[in-house]
Design a protein that fits this description.
With 97 residues, the chain is an alpha+beta fold. The protein contains 4 helices and 4 strands; from the N terminus they run βααββαβα. A 4-stranded antiparallel β-sheet has the order 2-3-1-4.
């Protein structure tokens, strides 16, 4: 199942309404679930990025659509990476896919 890690930075809009950040995150969880996307974890961070989102879906299109909708809401800018477990990565680099 494709897994994605999104590194999030607040936009000016998101920073101005930072107190509602967790409420928006819960609403995003519900919308993602309805779209067939599982949110594995959401973290708020200190440093270069303001948050981390880990999600997966049966089809990559589902996950990427959710991330696009998250960006379109205008509160965060995601930088998204596809992630692989050790077994998945071994299969890729050893040609066992």
């Amino acid at each position: 199942m494709p897994r994605y890690i999104s590194l999030l930075t607040f936009t000016e809009k998101g920073a101005q309404s930072i107190r509602q950040s967790t409420e928006r995150a819960h609403k995003f969880d519900e919308a993602a679930k309805k779209a067939g996307v599982k949110i594995e974890a959401q973290y708020w961070t200190v440093g270069r990025f303001d948050g981390v989102l880990i999600l997966n879906a049966a089809r990559s299109e589902q996950a990427l659509r959710c991330i696009a909708e998250l960006a379109a809401a205008g509160n965060v800018k995601p930088q998204t990476l596809e992630a692989f477990s050790g077994a998945e990565f071994d299969a890729i680099v050893k040609g066992n896919t």
